[in-house]
Amino acid sequence: MLVIQIALVVMVGISTHVSDEGTGVVSGLEFAVDPMQYQHAADAILARSPHLLIDAPDWLAEIDNPFDPKARAAAALETGWPSLWDYAYYNGNYYSYFGVLPALLLFLPYKVLTGTHLSNMAATIFLSIIVVLCTATLTRNTLARYGRNRNVRDIVLFGMFAYIASGVVYLVFYPSFYHEAILSGLACALGGVSVWIHASSKPSFSKRLVSVGSLLVALTLVSRPPLVLVCLLAIPLFWQRVFLPDQKVSSATWSRFASVVAPFLIIGILAMWWNYIRFGNPFDFGSNYNLTGFDMTGPKSEFRVPLGIIMYIFSPLNIDFQFPFFSNYTVDTFFFGWLQWRTGTIIEPYYGGIIAFLPLCLICLTLLSKNVQSHLVKFNTLSLSVWCLAVGIGIMLIDSTVAVTQRYQSDFFWLFVLATMLICLAFDEVQKPQWLYPAAIACVSFSGIIMLVNLMAPERYCAWVATNPELWQVLTSLFS
């Protein structure tokens, strides 16, 4: 299974022939696209500079609001010097607000060792393989901890389900600093929770394992900050084992508590220091200074978050009867155009929500049943299932304040899948319904098909229709 998963990641990663060379100028908003943000970040760190070593246009400091895309477009047309897209701008300099971890672990060492820049394609494929391995480890550890009758069927079924939900195939399709940040954060979150679940299976509290898991989850602060909410999963996993064994608070209690919390304090202090030297505020990650398609420093509609949650969960596939058979959401899709105008929501290529892509997750609705809750209590997974869903919705809420886009689904889809896996295992253990696994296999197979078909979508970034027309022609001839 891992060989197939990694092979697919590598083939998809090289299929779009993306190059890091050159800076293109996009007309209309008149901005320049420079894909080498992490390479610039590595150069800046080597030079001990908090800001990137590239010059920002002088006019950015002169216009009333440099974060207004229309004002930037007008100034770029007038001066012939466009601003960079999705770079942070603060006090006359460019910054990268994306998590610094990929720069520290990949781009900086590569530059020191070779004297050249690591390509985005190589970095994205490498991080994607790490995510695949972390996903498989999380599946294995969850089955080892809660799947008392674990077998090959469960490993393959839930392993493929978690692989699909991670979105790694979608992310590796477009090698870029956007996806490198998400992949690094996803690897840390998946790896950390995997270690935590393994630690929770030990007969005695393992401070070493718990600390390793906490360190990995804490590193999401410097890679993909919204994912740090995963730290809340420590509550259902370790609360009783930290506070209840001694019947009272003792030095051993504090020692166990420190093993969970100390890594977060260390990484949190380092992250605050990094924020302070760049933006003068330890709690400012710089995302509001992003030069993008809307003013992130301005007010946002109060309806943006509810719309985002609705779309991330409930939006159906936009079925099309021509190859590739479903398309992205546009202003003509359902009431989408009116809602986008009303809320000011930024929508990137988007194809459907969790129910559309992962229909097996509908089993999470059974948590509303008292009978199912009693099954999960017997199986000791009720609190973890509920916390997985709560954390997933919390991350979804944060992402909805920015945009609705398919790449953000990787932040939280896997949490819904983890809850689904726990519920399915409890059902199989307590009730053993005959319909469960045939239905699960059908749903996961459907999700896999949708994942593959989604690769062929012509509206997505780096679509094969533009980057690999030979492959596109072959696929079109097969399905037309």
Care to describe what's here?
This protein is mainly alpha-helical and 480 residues long. 57% of the residues lie in helices and 4% in strands. The chain has 20 helices and 7 strands. It has helices at 2-15, 37-46, 69-79, 101-114, 120-146, 152-166, 168-173, 177-200, 207-218, 234-243, 251-279, 304-314, 336-343, 354-357, 370-379, 382-400, 413-430, 436-454, 464-467, 469-479; strands at residues 24-26, 31-33, 83-84, 88-90, 93-95, 318-319, 326-327. The strands form 3 sheets. It has a 3-stranded mixed sheet. β6 and β7 (326-327) form a beta hairpin. The radius of gyration is 23 Å and the shape is globular. The two termini are 31 Å apart.
Strand content: under 5%
Alpha-carbon Rg, integer = 23 Å
Number of strands: 7
Q: How many alpha or pi helices?
A: 20
The SSE order reads HEEHHEEEHHHHHHHHHEEHHHHHHHH
Largest sheet: 3 strands, mixed
In helices, the fraction of residues equals 55-70%
Largest beta sheet: strand ordering: 1-2-3
The low-pLDDT segments are none
Mean pLDDT, all residues: 89
Cα end-to-end separation:
31 Å
Q: What shape does the CA trace take?
A: globular
Judged by helices, strands and strand pairing, the structural class is mainly alpha
Feature tags:
single chain, 480 residues, mainly alpha, two-stranded antiparallel ribbon, 20 helices, 7 strands
Outline:
This protein is mainly alpha-helical and 480 residues long. Helices cover 57% and strands 4% of the residues. The strands form three sheets. It has a three-stranded mixed beta sheet. A two-stranded antiparallel sheet has the order 4-5. A two-stranded antiparallel ribbon has the order 6-7.
